[in-house]
Amino acid sequence: MPTFAAPDGTALAHHSVGEGEPLICLPGGAMRASAYLGDLGGLAAHRRLVLLDLRGTGDSSVPADPATYRADRQVADVEALRLQLGLERIDLLAHSAAGDLALLYAAAHPQRIRTLTLITARGRAVGVDFTVADRHEAADLRKSEPWYDGARACFDRIWDGAATDPDFDAAAPFFYGRWDAAAQAHAALDVAQTNEEASGAYAGPGAFDPPAARAVLAQLDARVLLFAGEVDSGPRPRVAAEVANLFPSAELVVQPGAGHFPWLDDAAFFVRTVTEFLGQGSTSL
């Protein structure tokens, strides 16, 4: 397990899965260890996935200053990883809440981005977010599912701020396009993978300056993929489209029937889409 030092001295870890050109992967949560990404549905057969454990998660050390959990403070960690890997420009993939970190990194170091792949990702860093109404809209799409009646009230309590731990467990099917054995095993992964203190600080006051980020990203000389799930509640496809429209060159793909973890719902579609996107243009680093 390779480690490297962040600028503040925090020891950070990354895990490599597969062979080939590196694809730096940032996990969501916010602040969940990278293990849940696995091999991204087989994407590791085409690229070497460099899975970063964000500070205070997985095999990375807890920082001396908890304020450094804020997303903008972690941009320097991603840059330190680029330097550790010896890459001039990077292919960067981010899932879920890590979309904010990836957008902040791209705004701070636009010349270092070759491609940016945002998988069911948040866009608070550019002033685009999803709402409770979006959550309810997506949940309504699942009415025909056999688990719906027992899970809907639990799902609604999460966004009303009144959920208990059992509610989170019962609402899990809403985050997957197919509530099959693979999804159930994934949902059962150790909840200790998330650093709750870090998660609370991640999007804290001062983390984002949307006008400044938008101004830089509007000129970004890199290809961008926004990948949304058809039944995902955060973001809904139209919200992902708002983020896509902020870039001079961005593609939006909506995976049919997919939830928040699209590589589990249809691995073939997911891997084909991402590899085709990454394979466009020059392969020089």
Would you mind describing this structure in some detail?
The chain has 285 residues and is an alpha/beta fold. It has one domain (3-131, 192-278): Rossmann fold, CATH 3.40.50. The protein is 34% helix and 16% strand. It contains 11 helices and 8 strands. It has helices at 75-85, 98-108, 132-140, 148-160, 165-170, 181-187, 196-202, 210-217, 237-244, 262-265, 267-278, and strands at residues 3-5, 11-17, 22-26, 48-53, 90-95, 113-119, 223-229, 250-255. Strands 1-2-4-3-5-6-7-8 form an 8-stranded mixed sheet, sandwiched between helices. Strand 1 and strand 2 (11-17) form a beta hairpin. Helix 1 (75-85) packs across helix 2 (98-108), helix 2 (98-108) packs across helix 8 (210-217) and helix 3 (132-140) runs antiparallel to helix 4 (148-160). The protein starts with a strand and ends in a 7-residue tail after the last helix. Mean pLDDT is 95; it is low at 281-285.
Task: Please describe the structure with a list of short key phrases separated by commas or semicolons.
alpha/beta, Rossmann fold, 8-stranded mixed β-sheet, 11 helices
